[in-house]
Amino acid sequence: MSSNEHWNQICNKSSTYFEECSINFANNLLNIDINYFNIYDKTNQEDNEKISLSNKIDEYSLQTSMTNNSSAESIPLNLICGVCGAPAHGYNFDQITCESCRAFFRRNALKNMYQFECRFGGTCVINMHNRRQCTHCRLKKCFAINMRKDWIRTEEERRLRQLKKLYKQKKQLNELSLDEQQLIANLPLVVRKKKGTKSLITRQVTQELVVSKIESIYPIDTFAIHRNLSNDDRILLNNIMNAYKLGADQADYSHINRCTSSTTLVQFLNDETAIYESLICFYKQIPEFKKSNLADQVLLIKSNVLYPSYSLSDLRFWSELYSCGTQYIPTGSSEHSLSLVPGR
Amino acid sequence: MSSNEHWNQICNKSSTYFEECSINFANNLLNIDINYFNIYDKTNQEDNEKISLSNKIDEYSLQTSMTNNSSAESIPLNLICGVCGAPAHGYNFDQITCESCRAFFRRNALKNMYQFECRFGGTCVINMHNRRQCTHCRLKKCFAINMRKDWIRTEEERRLRQLKKLYKQKKQLNELSLDEQQLIANLPLVVRKKKGTKSLITRQVTQELVVSKIESIYPIDTFAIHRNLSNDDRILLNNIMNAYKLGADQADYSHINRCTSSTTLVQFLNDETAIYESLICFYKQIPEFKKSNLADQVLLIKSNVLYPSYSLSDLRFWSELYSCGTQYIPTGSSEHSLSLVPGR
DNA sequence: GCCAGTTCATTCAGTTCA
DNA sequence: TGAACTGAATGAACTGGC
Ligand SMILES: [Zn+2]
Ligand SMILES: [Zn+2]
Ligand SMILES: [Zn+2]
Ligand SMILES: [Zn+2]
Hints:
Two copies of one chain form a homodimer. By secondary structure, chain A is mostly helical. Among the domains of chain A are: 7-53; 90-151, Erythroid Transcription Factor GATA-1, Chain A (2-Layer Sandwich), CATH 3.30.50; 155-186; 229-257 and 265-307, no CATH class. Chain A contains 14 helices and six strands. Chain A has helices at residues 3-29, 42-45, 49-67, 99-108, 135-144, 155-173, 178-185, 231-250, 254-257, 265-270, 272-284, 287-291, 294-303, 315-325, and strands at 79-80, 87-88, 90-92, 95-97, 208-211, 221-224. In chain A, the strands form three sheets. A two-stranded antiparallel sheet of chain A has the order 1-2. In chain A, a hairpin with a 2-residue loop joins strand 3 and strand 4 (95-97). At the A-B interface, helix 1, helix 3, helix 6, strand 6 and helix 8 of A face helix 1, helix 2, helix 8, helix 12 and helix 14 of B. The complex binds zinc ion (ZN) (4 copies). The structure holds a DNA duplex.
């Protein structure tokens, strides 16, 4: 056994242990579907002859199509829809379904199932031909084979994508000016439908904010502030966000530009002044910050500066630390001499 | 957000502080090599996405791969991806990963993590089959095993490379136009010297300190202690690990179970006692902790608890605040009255 | 040979419209 | 309702420097 393998074994023993902990923990608390591989579940087994028969056919054809890979192009693997038995092309929402059942699920899965009523007491057996006769039973079947409605993208996600897309297009056309970035950032927002409310589209300017981070490849990162924030919280957050945005825009990056290729990271990081200045610029924009007393203000700034004790050498990494640091809001203590060794 | 999701996120938070402590602590001290136990046997390694269209197919591929098992040419070593567990070929960005996770990391590591949202509160356990279901958790896992985004080449370098390549081709054909020559001439020809390259070569020797800000959702799966750790460090790390393990086992999770669907996040987090107890339980197991003086011990515990004072209901934002806070390990100060309101 | 980057066919979301 | 779209993400298979 090589020393490499030996190492693997040692690590692995402890690994499984930890993994068990986490898995148990997760299973107990959360809704994780670990039956990912159980394609045919109970309900499917209870299905009628035809469908289970076609499942058998499916298995067979799958196997054969694997052995002789040269099968038809249009329906590559002879898959059949788990809902209606029609030919399928692949997975949709975690299960093999046909196009129509996919669309059907997309449209209806998020609605309340019991708004559809079955005229036959919910006993319909869905197949390719009768699938549109009973919405209730078709949807029931969808859930029975474990199609996952949580894989339908939320309104929020969709909006985010649209925004990204828009941004890309813009960027392609010409380099974005700052004004244009702002424009995109302030786009009127579509807010997800409220549960139990009939309100469709709400326009709320402060509901979602676009913060552009220094190093981000996509300057636009959208944060959808949850709708049930209190107004005060929303305003506060808004202020923080805007301050950040302004801070990022206005901050003096000359200390970065001062660096030459021979400037070491440590030198760079030790240039505390600039970091302080940026932080102050950031905080200054927040009215709530001004209201706090001076000592606390100083503390806030101070404790958000990390002193470089390591010879970290990557700026991007540091910038992340740094932006992370700005989120830590400490209180009360008088002096900090940061060090990472606890038992000093 | 459904109350279910809401819960997931809450629960997730409670599990996080343990990992925060141990991971950050360890990361700060050591360059850790994390690897996984190969819970799949060798046959499973030949599993692949296309083939595993169904359970049956999995079985089939298992059987077939058992018969012609000796084809170990494509995967020379028994390496497995530290992110998803798939067969791996070697190191990518400082960790052993599969091809897909490599590409994934390349694509996403430089983006802001919070543009990806987890539908399950960031608790997904990534494996070979579900890896593309949750970008957020997959990326998180990448960082958790210490894949290094600073080894991704910069835009600058990329541009230069492309140009060089183009230049070579053109030169071969003697087709360089004047414009193109000009273009090339105007490019910064100084290649930023990548320290990553050096590290690659001297990976075994250099003991680089890696400070990761990444909050890992997973309890540490395993720590493969790096070969060139000092004995002392190794023992210390061991102790921390064991403490974590014990802490996770023994910790009283009743405060989680106490929560009903009407418990607010703030109420939950304000249940300080339980958090303290768990933390103490964790630290108690580490001999080095006992050796430190009492004030430091108290400080260490305290500084790893943040009190919620805002009724933020956007948990994503909150969780970022929170996770950043737990990384802050202060020393030497006598008393902290932690609170998130600066101007108190 | 290793490990960066690069390319491109494929999969599976959403979208459109007859 | 569902066939036919669009497009982002993925990952296998490349290239190329050292
Ligand atoms: Zn169908
Ligand atoms: Zn019916
Ligand atoms: Zn992987
Ligand atoms: Zn997730």
